[in-house]
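Hi R.,

As promised, here are both runs. First protein below:
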Amino acid sequence: MKSFTLTTRRAVAGACALLALGLAGAAQAAWPDKPVTLVVPYSAGGPTDVVARLLAVPMGHSLGQTVVVENTVGAGGTIAPARVAKAKNDGYTILIHHMGMATAPALYKKLPYDPLKDFEYIGQVLDVPMTLLSRKDFPVNTFPELLDYVKKNQDKVTLANAGIGAVSQLCGMLFMHQVGVKLTTVPYKGAGPAMNDLMGGQVDLLCDQTTQTAPVIQDGKRAKVFGVTTPKRLSSMPNLPTLDEQGLKGFDVKVWHGMYAPKGTPKEVIEQLTKALNVAIKDENVKKRIAELSSDLVSPDKATPEGLRKHLEAEVARWDKVIKAAGVSAD
């Protein structure tokens, strides 16, 4: 009788253990069972926000849950990453951010997060090219003439940007670094005011995203354009040469974007998020809208955790040298 009871108890215990494992597996497989929040470091309507909202719909369809875009702005785009780094690592709070993830460590002495240690990587998303413009009455017409002019008149030339940490500032810094000049930089509170003053003739040069500059370039009357900052010409502007092919060898600046989750987010959750991201970048509506912005979605091999990790590591090292050489700090 005792033997039977013991055997029965063991069988019941074994069945309960199997049931518990089954329930745990079912619970795990149920992710996500509520909406996922995609945090954007910049205001609604800006380039990063536009991209986030484009991706949110097809990602939500893939995950079977709504992806809610939430704008968390401030401190040069560092508040949002800090928030996501401290969020619960269950996959329900994720981040989309541009190249600011790579430049922040060099710009901020007391950054409240570490881009290389405090996140899991979901994948790269897209690249937004940049273009170098001048006011319409600037006294040169070609890029070789521009290089010669800024070297001889660097104390007289003004270079606008959209503020500390803005991609326009970073592009300008790399331009000065590679040309070997120090121009007078003029920071603005946003790309719009900087562009307005360039077109109004108050500043000489501006390097900014095609999402901002394409209408001005296509108009052809309000500013001069000297080239695109990527190694290859843009399919949307095939007649616009690159800075690289015009003599500034190796010049390559694009506003790349990536998606991140808090450190410790389960591997299987990251896999589902990466799968959803890849579904989104293959979506026909997303591809059409991104092309209209003169931007490029990344190849599938880059839209992976490893692809983003390698790119971020290389970009952190690259911009650390440029920013320190320029002596710029956001603190």
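And here is the second one, sequence first, then its structure tokens:
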Amino acid sequence: MSSEMSVLTKRFNGSCSGLLPNGNFEEAPPKSQLNGTRVMGRYAIPHWEISGYVEYIGSGQKQGDMLLPVPEGAYAVRLGNEASIQQRLALTQGAHYSITFSAARTCAQAEQLNVTVAPESDILPIQTVYSSSGWDSYSWAFKATGSVVSLIVHNPGVAEDAACGPLIDLFAIKTLPTPQSSKNNMLKNGDFEEGPYIFPNARWGVLVPPMDEDDYSPLSPWMILSSTKSVKYVDAPHHVVPHGARAVELVSGMETALVQNVTTVPGLPYRLQFSVGDAGNGCVGSMSVQAYAASRSVKVPYQSQGKGGYKRGALDFTATADQTRVVFVRMGYIMKPDGTLCGPVVDDVSLVCTRNRPARRLLL
């Protein structure tokens, strides 16, 4: 490994959580490595390696009449057509990790980012903006197949302007524990307490994008099934959540489903219970959530005043297979006055078998 490349490797021992080295890009390239805003040297941005047309963008900088949004601090990076940026990380082989980062569109409506830690790779759609700030935070998860991996973020777009592309900032990593069920809940991570890293000042939450069913979810073992839309992972410091410190906001209507598969016994009865509420974020209106399990479903209506609150829902069903899919879908859409999508929060989800157990005989 060259001396240049060795500085790109950061070792994380055991459980880790927090910003990647120069994850906010506040350590600037040398001025000799800049041609205007374009970064010329492959290793010019400390702790990162770049390829293609990459720009170093300062807060307040404009593109024509449009102000380019910098999510945090003074600087961010923009990836042009086919440009990429990567960082090498020394991790625990076999462990699961989530990456959180912020991104904003700057040109085309259908901008995308390809996030890769080999052999896993996914295209994250960023055309829908879910916050009024002009950017969103995204999460993505992977399993470390080696002790040293390369995190690569690539812009696969082909715009007329070669410099056009997403603006990215604030990269963080978090170790994801193995989800466990309990005697009181057959579902794993039913309270959503285990999930991607949320930046302390990120009042807009973190998006969990759609994924293939074989992918590892940042909300594992929950999956987000959709073509292009996401759900939002929210925290108690910035939102009202029904239980604990985390919850999921269904911001994309019927286009997105929150799903978990659970092992069941055909013919046995089960009860699914959950909370539906609002995040106290000004999302006002009629918000109903439809829950599905086996051949049954229930619709739980909730009238939101946008100030927080929740109600409990329940669904009794009989398992028809050795695996049952639990599904939550938001019925309809709601927008806040600033034009951003919002929706109900789902939290505190539990599943138990309700088969009557034989009473114990009392010995007299």
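A quick note on the second one: DSSP finds one helix and 29 strands in the chain. Let me know what you think.

Best,
J.
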